[in-house]
Amino acid sequence: MSLKAMPLLFLNMGGEMIYILDQRLRAQEIHQAKAEKVLDDILGLMCTSRFIEELFRPQSIYSAQSLRTIFYRLAHSSIMRLNKQSMDKLYDLMAMVFKYQVEQCSHPRQLLMVTLNHLDSMARFATAPRVSKQVQTAYDLAVQCYGNLPEGEMQDIRYDILNFFLDYRVKVSIFLKEKRQNPSGTFVIDVTGPLPEGVSMPGEIRYFDERGEITSTCRYPCKELPGEPARSGSLAQNGDRGTTLGTNIYSSQGSEPVSAGPTGSGAGDEPPTTTSPSPSPASPVCGSGPTAERAAQALELLAQLIGQGGQQKCEIRLNLPGPGAAAAAAAAASGAAADGSNQPVQGTRGRSDHLQKVMEDMTIGEPPASGGQQDLLNMMDALSE
Amino acid sequence: MYEKEKSLLMAHGCAAATNGLAVQRSADGPTWVAWPHGNQVCLLRLDGDRAETRTVAGRSSDGAHSVMQVRWCELRGTTYLVVAASNGVDFYDEHGASLLFSFPFSQEGGGGSFTRGIATFLGKACVGTSDGSLLVFQRDAAAGAPHLAQRARLHASAICALAGDECHLVSSDQSGNIVQWAGKAGELTKVRQIDHYGSACTGLTLTAQYVVAVYGSGHLRLFSRQTGQVRAEVTAHARWITGLDVALESGLLLTVAEDASVKVWKVSEDGKPLTHKFTEHEQDARLMGGGFLRPDGASFGLAAYDQKQLICYAM
């Protein structure tokens, strides 16, 4: 398995998280200064140089559980809080949209273009100069790490990411509406786009003699429509990537709620599966081993970084609605909490003792009585036991 | 030429893996089909109208490791289910009931570590690795277990595919280079290298006269086994080719790709080396492998990423 997949998985899913949070902050008409602060806080943490360095070290992909916990912590690192259901929906949306983007890549190199599209957008969302600089560093590192990677290695990374999402199937309302996803949950495959670089239009057979000279050519019947050659994706910031994969699919949504999860009965050969409650057998949760240790180190680092800024008081309750959520969104915008719950987000399913203790120690919604720094230090002690 | 038949259901969806589908076919016995799913292998036994599934758990329960590819290999009269995984090579009994031998593999460096590409050659099982090596496993006696007999290192990049018959073994890598090997005094020795065309060579097979190769660029090429010279080049698919199989009895060749299409070709040993016979598009199926279910090529099965159905076609 590739040891270079983790940064792409994290940065792309992080980019999707920013898109969704931005959409919800606008839908709930959160004050602009507060919304900017939330996005700056999260972006700043995601792209902190220490965290990015840890991410880019050669390592296997973290378990699904560890990755979910990292994003839960990130989402709660600012003045915003989400309840458990909204947090689960946020993660499902992030994961399914990125899974779609990875699957749709017409060529392995396009995976880098998707990442750079996300990073371009993250740079645009950043308001504070410090955060802009951090995003820029992450951008430069991505280009440096993947810009010249051979296509075969990039394809291995792409397949590793696809296998991370194996069996993960949640219906996304915007995808169903735009006919990008079938009612069964499988993605619609569109191969009518431009041909990837290096690929020729199917339909021709050339014959050669023993000296390598062409003796004849012929055509065979082909159903493919003639496609123009792809534009070679640019590595420059805000350059022409040759694809819209990785750009903000919610930017035209306005305040319309986006949702993930069952949207009613769907026709299809198999019943839709929602696998968010438990990891697939393909990636069983493991509390030991080098990958789990690396994930724990990343979480510990994140805890340190959050701790350095001090645990922030909750000022915004964000919600991600399910189907028929217009009413819920309106209620939230009017100032009423989407629900009065102060339930802590359970970032794990109880399979990893270390991570479970970490999440239980995190206070969500109420400032910790003894001060954020001390609780996070206790957390770090627990991790290092 | 082929009509779609009822799909068969495997226990789990197919992983994203080039040449993911393996078939053990016989003229009159049951047919077995296998594909990877995470760190497991999904098996299907097809006997007339009866189909039964089985799952083989991987050696490692650590989710960080996964199965890349499986194939059946016969070593000294015993058939093994050979599993190329990211942490090594495992030999199971023919139908995956028990693990008989393991060879751990790990590679230093940032690129990644795995084994991929499996073929039988001169009664030995050959498996490729991410550092470009070929691992050759053999059994010394009828009752013995397989063991590593040779490690041949010639490729400069990760192995993508292997194919073998009585005369040659061929191996291809991510750079697109192909090496043709012969067996001399029980060891692999290089016959020639066929240079790359700028794209990974993702699949290989052998006919009487040709080395057949498919590429990430969607090309299919036939090379002379005697000289290494290219004899036919086809713009076959619009995306990365992910599966290749041959039915030697009839000379039929099968290619599948990420463009969701399957194509069947006829290889001729005289006259035009290759002609096109059949194309079909599989809606919304990111194909990851294909294989003939019968030695004469009268039926074939397709594997698609994250889908449990074995998509079947028959003449």
Automatic annotation (TrEMBL), chain A:
UniProt region (Disordered), positions on chain: 225-291, 363-385
InterPro entries tied to this protein: OSCP1
The domain of life for this entry's organism is: Eukaryota
Instruction: Give a Gene Ontology cellular component term annotated to this protein.
Output: plasma membrane
One Pfam family per UniProt? Oscp1
Which residues are the signal sequence here? none
Q: Which PANTHER family match?
A: OXIDORED-NITRO DOMAIN-CONTAINING PROTEIN, PROTEIN OSCP1
Name of the featured protein: Protein OSCP1
UniProtKB/TrEMBL annotation, chain B:
Q: Start-end of the WD repeats?
A: 234-275
Q: Which residues form the WD repeat-containing protein 54 beta-propeller domain?
A: 1-309
Keyword set includes Acyltransferase = no
**Keyword annotations for this protein?**
WD repeat
Among Pfam families, the record links this protein to: WDR54 (PF21031)
State the name under which the record lists this protein. WD repeat-containing protein 54
